[in-house]
Each structure stands twice: as C-alpha cells, then as structure tokens.
Write a structure and sequence with these properties.
The protein has helices spanning about 1-5, 40-45, 50-60, 80-95, 115, 120-125, 135-140, 160-175, 190-200; strands at about 10-15, 70-75, 105-110, 130, 180, 200-205. Helix 9 (about 190-200) links the parallel strand 5 (about 180) and strand 6 (about 200-205). The relative contact order is 0.12. By secondary structure, the protein is an alpha/beta fold. The protein is built from 9 helices and 6 strands, in the order H-E-H-H-E-H-E-H-H-E-H-H-E-H-E. A 6-stranded parallel sheet has the order 1-2-3-4-5-6.
C-alpha cells in the first residue's frame, strides 16, 4: 500500500533493525552491557538468515508494485554486504522459481558510520549510502544516546559529526552513487542549508 500510494517515488526500507534501543522480547536477545555496540541489526539478520530471507522475499514481492530500495543497517565490512546480497539472490531465485514478479534491479544501500571510512570499497557493492545521524553522532562522539547525563556532550551539530557527513557525501558522489540522511538531523531545519551545500541527495523527514 505504501509504495502504490507513493506512485513511483522511491521508498527506502531498512531491513530488520532490532537490538540496542529497539527491543523485541520474542527474539530472546540476551541482556548486553553495551547494546549499542552489540548484537543488533544486520548482525542478527546474518546469523538468523531464515528470518532475514522472509523479510527480503516480502520486500522483493512489494517491489513489483512501486519503487522500493533496500537499506542494510549497521554494515561495517564489504563481506557483510556480500553475505546479505547472497541471501537476497537466494530469495530472488526462489521467487523466480515460483513465477512471482519483483524488480530485478532493486537498489541496495548501506547505513553505518563505518561507511565513511570504507566508502571506496563499499561503493563498489551498493547503489547508495544512507547516513543514520543518530548512530553516527553516538559513535563519532563516543556518547551513549540513551544516557540522559550525556545530553550536553552528544551534540549532533558537532563539527566532527558534520565532517563525517561531508566525507560520506563526497565519497558517494566520487563513486557515482547517491547519499541520503536518515535520523533526527534529516528534519533539523537549522542544518538544511548546510546539507544542501554539502551536496546531500535526499533527506528522510
């Protein structure tokens, strides 16, 4: 219904991002001392591929009705992207065998602070970068975003955070892929002009 309503406009859907501050009791995740750096997002998907493939099949099936792109959260290495794409190809093969329509050229993108440093290698594997500014701020400034005592220190307008965003945009464009922003900064009007000057292609608001 979402992609049909968007009538051809791109709809970027993040794959399962359970873990850290997003809890789901039915996953039976163990308590972690530092969940922000723990077993979450793509790490769960790659170690529970039977769950991951169900979501990928659903996204592929929905792609027949509109313009869907798939975003993989918390990617830190090229191998993780390749492992995810292998499962995606398995899902595609199954749907072909069942003669179910889907978009064969569906776009795949990644979100992670590591994309800044690994941009050259990752850009060869994906169609876009998405900058998750909440996690980017947390990891760049070493501030737990769930800790209210760190509110004055976890400044998403920090020059360090903005420089990371700039580096990501430049790297994406250097390799001919687009770069968007998701997270709270996407709707921060005080930074809209800055993001446009930096060349951002998309803001998730």
């Amino acid at each position: 219904r979402v992609v049909e309503t968007m009538a051809g406009k791109k709809v970027v859907i993040r794959t399962l991002d359970i873990g850290a501050d997003k809890k789901a009791d039915y996953f039976g995740l163990e308590r972690e001392e530092n969940p922000a750096l723990g077993y979450r997002a793509i790490r769960i998907c790659l170690t529970r591929p039977e769950i991951f493939k169900v979501q990928l099949r659903a996204l592929l099936r929905a792609s027949a009705y509109g313009n869907i792109a798939i975003m993989l959260p918390m990617i830190t290495s090229v191998q993780e992207v390749r492992d995810a794409k292998r499962i995606l190809e398995e899902a595609k093969s199954e749907l072909r065998g069942e003669r179910i329509d889907f978009n064969e050229s569906i776009q795949i993108g990644v979100e992670t602070p590591a994309s800044v440093i690994m941009a050259d290698e990752l850009a060869a594997e994906v169609d876009f970068f998405s900058i998750g500014t909440n996690d980017l701020t947390q990891y760049t400034l070493a501030c737990d975003r769930q800790n209210p005592s760190l509110e004055r220190f976890a400044d998403p307008h920090s020059p360090a955070v903005l420089r990371m965003i700039q580096m990501t945009i430049e790297a994406a464009h250097r390799h001919g892929i687009w770069c968007g922003i998701c997270g709270e900064l996407g709707a921060d009007l005080s930074l809209t002009d800055t993001f446009l000057r930096l060349g951002i292609d998309e803001l998730s608001v």
